[in-house]
Each structure stands twice: as structure tokens, then as C-alpha cells.
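Reopening this one. Same input as before:
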Amino acid sequence: MRIITAVIALTLFVSTPAFSEGKKRKMRGGKYGPAGCGLGATLLKGKKGLMFNVLAATLNGTGFQTFAMSTGTLGCKGDSRVAAVNFIETNKVFLANDIAKGEGETVNAFLDLINEDADSIATLRTNYDEIFAKDSSSEEIWNRIDTLL
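Same output, byte for byte:
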């Protein structure tokens, strides 16, 4: 009897986050169901119902969700602000050169990171002077790019 009670309690504990927000959350990059993103959401994509949501939340809770959110894998391409600012900080010169040319590996990697397609390069190139205003911080550059796209 104690085992059954423990299993029920564990199931409720693990599944509670899955149902804390019933509507889909849309962030830059994707829609997430009640279980969020991660291994479970990826493996059970398109499945509906209580059982699948609980299973997805349980699989997400195995530690893969943290990894996925940190690396942007397993469907966890959510709010990419921090990653974008870090990318700009590390690659500012190369990114500016690629945007000025309208092509390049760095700008393509950046657009992939923020879940935009290559068509956005034209917008960035047109607004180059505004984006890379003199003495702009990486945060300011990101805010301008985010506003434009």
C-alpha cells in the first residue's frame, strides 16, 4: 500500500509542472505544450492527452531539459536573448563585417541561433549604420536587431 501511495504522490509531484500552464507558450523560436521542451516533448511531439503530457514532463525532468535549454536543442529554442548577446560580444567584428557584406558564416550562424531565416540579412544590411552605431554595447546591438526582426 505504501508503494502505491508513493507512486501516486511521485506522479502528482512530477506532473504538476506539466499542467501549471495549459495553453501553449510561444517564444521566439517555437511553441511548447504543457510539458515544455526537452526530450519528452521531442519524443512525444504531436501526441495529445493527459497520459502523453505526464510522460513528456517526466522524460523532460530526467535532466535532459536543463541540457536542452542550455544548448538550444531538443526543441528548446526559446528566448534567445542571452545567447544572442553573448554571440554578438564574442563575434562583433565578424558579425558586423558579414552584415555589411550581406552574407557570411557568422551572420548565418547568428540568424540560426535566433531562429530567423537568411531573408533577414537584407533587413540587417539595410540598417547596418543604425545597428552598429558608434560605441554600441552588445546588448544595444541585440536590442536594435530584435526590434528590426
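So the earlier flakiness isn't reproducible anymore. For the record, The two ends are 57 Å apart (CA to CA).
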